[in-house]
Prior knowledge:
The protein has 12 helices and 9 strands. It is an alpha/beta fold. The strands form 2 sheets. Strands 5-4-9-8-6-7 form a 6-stranded parallel beta sheet, with helices on both faces. The longest helix has 24 residues, at 243-266. The protein is globular and about 50 Å long.
Amino acid sequence: xxxxxxxxxxxxxxxxxxxxxxxxxxxxxxxxxxxxxxxxxxxxxxxxxxxxxxxxxxxxxxxxxxxxxxxxxxxxxxxxxxxxxxxxxxxxxxxxxxxxxxxxxxxxxxxxxxxxxxxxxxxxxxxxxxxxxxxxxxxxxxxxxxxxxxxxxxxxxxxxxxxxxxxxxxxxxxxxxxxxxxxxxxxxxxxxxxxxxxxxxxxxxxxxxxxxxxxxxxxxxxxxxxxxxxxxxxxxxxxxxxxxxxxxxxxxxxxxxxxxxxxxxxxxxx
Length: 270
C-alpha cells in the first residue's frame, strides 16, 4: 500500500539511510547522502554540537558538488563522514520532496544569516576563514553591524593552494585559542571539503563549507532575486553573471545530473 516513507528504514525505493547518535537521517542522490533538514533544524543542531568537544564538518550541497562526487571517490566518502549535508540546490530539495520527505532548501547564504542573526545567548563563537585578502574582515565588519549579537572571534584568509602541515597547525591553534565552535569556510569545492576534513581532526568545532557565501554577504557578488531562488533558477542568474567561469557547471554538469537522476529513478532493481 502506498504511503509516506518510513525515514528510519532503508528501502530500494527511497534510498533512505538512518544514522546513529545525533546524526541526521538522509536520502540518496546519486550515491551521495543528503540530510533531511531545514535552516532552523540545522541551526539548532549547531547549538547542540557546540556543547561538546567533537570536531565536525557540514557540507552545503548543490548539483555541482553531487556531480564532482561522482568522479572523486575521496570526496564521495567524506559525505558519509559529514555530520550534516544540507540540500542547497532546489533539484536536491525536489528529489527529497518527491519521496515524501520533510526536506527544505538549506543554502549556505541563508543558513549563515539565520545562524548569525539568532546567535545571541546560544554560546556560539564564530570564525570566518576564506575568501580573497580582506574579504573575511569585510564579512566580520558587515555582520557586526547587522547582527551585533553574534560573537565573531576570529577571521583568516587561506592561500590559493593546499595548506602545509605547519599552516594547518597554526590556523588550528588560532581557532582553538579564540574558542571558535562554528567555523565558516569560504573557498571553492572540493578544496573546502578536504580542508574541513583535516581541520575537524584538530579543532573541536563545527566547520561549515559555504563557498561563495562570503562574497554574497559582502556584496562582492550579487545573489539572484528571491523569486529565482524559490523556483530553481538561481543557476541562471549565476551563469549570466559569470559565464566564463560557470558555463561548464551549468551547461554540462547540470544536464548530466538530470539524466543520471532519471536513470536512478527508473532503474529496475535486480
